[in-house]
Amino acid sequence: MTSEIVIMNKEAVAMAADSALTVKIGSSHKIFTSANKIFALSSYHPVGIMIYDSAEIQEIPWATVIKMYRKKLGKKKFPKLENYATHFISFLNNNLGLFPKSQRYKFTVTYIYNYYLHLLEVIDDRLALLVEKKPVNRSMITRVAQEVIMNHLALLKQYSKSLNYNNLKVSKIQSIYRKLISQAIAQAFPKVPLNKKSVAALWEIATRLFFTLEPINCKTGINIAGFGETDIFPVTKSYIIQGILGDKLKYIEGIKTITFDLDAAVGVFAYSDSAEAFMKGIDPDYEKVLGDGLEEIFMDYPRYILEKILNLDKTKKARYLKKIEPESKRLLKSCLKNLKDYQKEKFSDPIVKVVAMLPKDELANMAEALVGINSFKVKVSMNAEIVGGPIDVAVISKGDGFIWIKRKHYFKPELNRNFFQNKV
Fold first, then answer.
1. Considering only CA atoms, which of 41, 53, 208, 176 is closest in space to residue 105?
2. Do 115 and 94 share a structural domain?
3. How many distinct helices (H) and strands (E) make up the chain?
4. Single pTM value for the model
5. Which of 37, 44, 210, 296 has its CA 20 to 30 A from that of 70?
6. Alpha-carbon distance 12 to 43, whole Å?
């Protein structure tokens, strides 16, 4: 896990990241506090890149990939920041030699198999609850498995985004990976009596994994920020990448641009509870509990009132409830909107207005402070310290380029002067 902040105004963009890295070893987790997450994407131009979540792409460190790209880019420059981002993604897509065919096949197998294993865990949990009440027979296992599999297929359809497989047909995917999918189903569900509907759904799930960025498998977040040659204000292009599935990089993208109308922006990534609470004036978990509680009250209270009215038959209660529920929903929506408006007016907007005026050094201080808040919150909690270690900070501006404000090293700088003469 990690905590990262990107803050932009018209003059510059500041990036700050902690150094915590969680490594899974079997069923255990080990946390290191020496990871590098911010890099200069170009050695000559004002562009930086920041990564979060996974530190690797298919077992290759992102740091290695980024530095290989930086060397290939050389002094080449682009008119827009978006061009740098697109060029970097093309570098990954067009250099599949970085990822041998056997390794890509292994990743695809593991990717689909991991999703199936997650389904199996959900099925087992559902069956464990049923066993507490009554014995479970073969037909019940088949029914529960079908319900779980169909529910996840429906979720994948909701998650579905047109990634970068637009021209690849479903039938072609199933043809290419027929053996792989069959083996994954057999290995993941050896003791589950699946019916034909469940098996067909598992095949469709495997296919949709090529098109869908889902939450089960690991992913890497990337923010590429800075200026192209013609950019007057800073731009941040973000990607969520889940690796190379088959022969294509699987990702979705977004962009945030400072303009004359939007003169400041604050982005909070990965672990963000305390930083979000600072920006919004309320802890995000508490905000969710509050929203859920209000929804429960607004939706249940009319039914509760009608139940307490004597001499009112079921038909009339149902008719009155049908009339009241839309009004209750309207009031809930209005209440939540008022809370959001107050939050924006009293907390978010004033902070963003100040950010718009901050000089470069204060942008850096704010970015570091927000990461520090997250780190301190984790440190004083009873949870694992998934955020922590030294905080790296960089500022990118049109005139000064990529400038390190704070940067840790695994070596003594005074013994390695050549490093600073030859590298950014």
1. 176
2. no
3. 13, 14
4. 0.82
5. 210
6. 18
